[in-house]
């Protein structure tokens, strides 16, 4: 009898390892977050159906700033043990009890590339002021179809640093204030409201009628930002990467201004350009 003809013993079955229950609310056993109605994948995943749908924040600055903002309505907080301990140490008693999870559980919601630092928060959008209710000395930033959430988030962070009153953006052709945008804003969403309008040109016309100086940033403009100088009320209008300001938007500006470059490269990323422009338009810093 050859070796191949000999009867073989069945391989012994390996004992199944018991699965640990996923911690639910208050540490009780539950199911993973992606089976309880939360966003399912990607750092920008989250409800996008309307302006009143919950949005997702993750990472230390966005989450801690939102928890400290009493005007922000909170729905659900997931945190690792380290994340929850850091929140308690920095903020004391939290307005919402965290659900203790493992880092990979948050990874499942956001994707492995999201730097969540063990914190994930679902919140309501902040209330936004009406254009007509903005103060007479307001400084605004208007975004003309900027679609990159990293750039928009960086602009929000810069706007918070320079005391911008609000950011005006459109319902279409703009990223939602969630996920990557919120992470890039590094907590700035809690300090600079986003005013969403249907038509940017009409909004600029309305602001002009109220006495706002509408300053369009254009690399080919004859005027420099230094020549324009600080003005209030004013709105800085920024165009999309590559395309710049649309013709209709340009026609609604009172003045077009450029950043005077002296080096070989004559353009900047729009978020960097926004920072320089806001610095130039700040009182005493032109």
SSE blueprint:
Elements: E1 22-23, E2 29-30, E3 55-58, H1 60-68, E4 74-79, H2 81-91, E5 99-100, H3 103-110, E6 119-123, E7 139-144, H4 149-161, E8 166-170, H5 179-185, E9 194-197, H6 200-209, E10 213-217, E11 223-224, H7 225-228, E12 234-239, H8 247-251, E13 255-258, H9 270-280
Parallel strand pairs: 4-5, 7-8, 7-12, 8-9, 10-12, 10-13, 11-13
Antiparallel strand pairs: 1-2, 3-6, 4-6
Helix pairs in contact: 4-5, 4-9
Summarize the structure in words.
This protein is an alpha/beta fold. The chain has two domains: 45-123, 2-Layer Sandwich (60s Ribosomal Protein L30, Chain: A); 131-260 and 267-280, Alpha/beta knot (3-Layer(aba) Sandwich), CATH 3.40.1280. The protein is built from nine helices and 13 strands. It has helices at 60-68, 81-91, 103-110, 149-161, 179-185, 200-209, 225-228, 247-251, 270-280, and strands spanning 22-23, 29-30, 55-58, 74-79, 99-100, 119-123, 139-144, 166-170, 194-197, 213-217, 223-224, 234-239, 255-258. A seven-stranded parallel sheet has the order 9-8-7-12-10-13-11, with helices on both faces. Strand 8 (166-170), helix 5 and strand 9 (194-197) form a beta-alpha-beta unit. Helix 4 (149-161) packs parallel to helix 5 (179-185) and helix 4 (149-161) packs parallel to helix 9 (270-280).
Tags for this entry?
286 residues; alpha/beta; 60s Ribosomal Protein L30, Chain: A; Alpha/beta knot; 2 domains; 7-stranded parallel sheet; 4-stranded mixed sheet; 9 helices; 13 strands
């Amino acid at each position: 009898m050859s070796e191949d003809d000999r009867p073989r013993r069945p391989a012994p079955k390996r004992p199944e390892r018991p699965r640990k229950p996923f911690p639910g609310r208050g540490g009780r056993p539950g199911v993973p977050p992606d089976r309880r109605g939360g966003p399912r994948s990607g750092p920008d995943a989250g409800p996008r159906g309307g302006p009143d749908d919950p949005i997702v924040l993750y990472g230390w600055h966005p989450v801690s700033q939102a928890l400290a903002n009493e005007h922000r309505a909170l729905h659900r907080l997931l945190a690792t043990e380290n994340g929850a301990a850091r929140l308690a140490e920095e903020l004391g008693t939290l307005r919402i009890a965290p659900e203790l999870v493992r880092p990979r559980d948050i990874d499942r919601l956001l994707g492995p590339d999201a730097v969540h630092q063990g914190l994930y928060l679902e919140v309501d959008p902040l209330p936004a002021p009406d254009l007509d209710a903005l103060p007479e000395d307001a400084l605004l930033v208007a975004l003309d179809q900027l679609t990159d959430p990293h750039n928009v988030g960086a602009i929000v962070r810069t706007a918070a640093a320079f005391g911008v009153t609000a950011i005006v953006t459109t319902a279409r052709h703009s990223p939602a204030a969630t996920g990557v945008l919120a992470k890039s804003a590094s907590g700035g969403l809690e300090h600079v409201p986003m005013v969403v309008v249907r038509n940017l040109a009409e909004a600029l016309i309305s602001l002009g009628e109220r006495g706002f100086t509408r300053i369009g940033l254009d690399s080919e403009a004859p005027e420099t930002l230094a020549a324009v100088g600080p003005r209030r009320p004013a709105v800085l209008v920024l165009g999309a990467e590559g395309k710049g300001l649309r013709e209709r938007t340009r026609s609604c500006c009172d003045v077009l201004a450029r950043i005077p470059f002296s080096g070989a490269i004559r353009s900047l990323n729009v978020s960097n350009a926004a920072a320089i422009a806001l610095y130039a338009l700040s009182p005493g810093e032109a």
